[in-house]
Amino acid sequence: MRKYPVTWFYILAFGISWLGMISIVLASRGIAPFYRPYFLFLSIFYAIGPALAAMIVTQVADGRAGIRELLKGLIRWRVGLVWYVVAVLGAIGLLLVAQVVTKLLGLTVTIVMPQVVLSPYVIFGVTVNFLANTCEEIGWRGFALPRLQKRYNALLATLIVGMLWGLWHFPLVFLAGAMSEYPFLWFIMIMANAFIYTWIYNSTKGSILLVALFHGSGNLFGAFIPGVSPVACTLMDCVVAIVLIAVFGRANLSRRERVCAG
Description:
This protein has helices at residues 5-28, 37-40, 44-71, 81-105, 120-151, 154-168, 178-181, 183-203, 208-221, 230-248. By secondary structure, it is an all-alpha fold.
């Protein structure tokens, strides 16, 4: 693990998370015994896989000091108000523009989102959403990205992280929903999102908190903004990714130096 920390990270992240993902898929199809309550606890590994993998590899390679350094990004909150606006309103803005594009181009929305009514269950779901997204970002952006950026420029490092992040979602293709209907589109969308996340991460000097906030906001408000086609979402994310590369350059994808570690 000390010699190949990134490789070991991805092996563990996929292995731990897919244990949870596969149990969710089998349970959704009513395959015994996975639909029984005492098997559903496996689904927690889906969310915590990247964070757990990052902490295991970091502990082996760098000990407790490495763990503390890894988790510093979670409390890196002094980044300027503008980045909080980007993290929350940016995600909403992309969804609203995608909604307009969906209508203008007459794109089909095959997945109808149920109307969300605020309740204790919804509040609990929102909390779980942000915790799960934070666990993802501890791994993808907190651990993998800065180590890859030490070896490669931000563009290539982001391509690697984005591709593997997309592949990590593969078992969810077998769940009923938009991801199963448009697997290739979702893969491209995730790849494009990786560039937005890198931009935020490098611009905030490695704030996992802000990236997780953007990630969680996108997932959350996606449930409240109806009539958005996956085609439109993918198109918008790709446009934003291309603009970021053109404006900030492949070296750092930011006005600041890219964040490196390891």
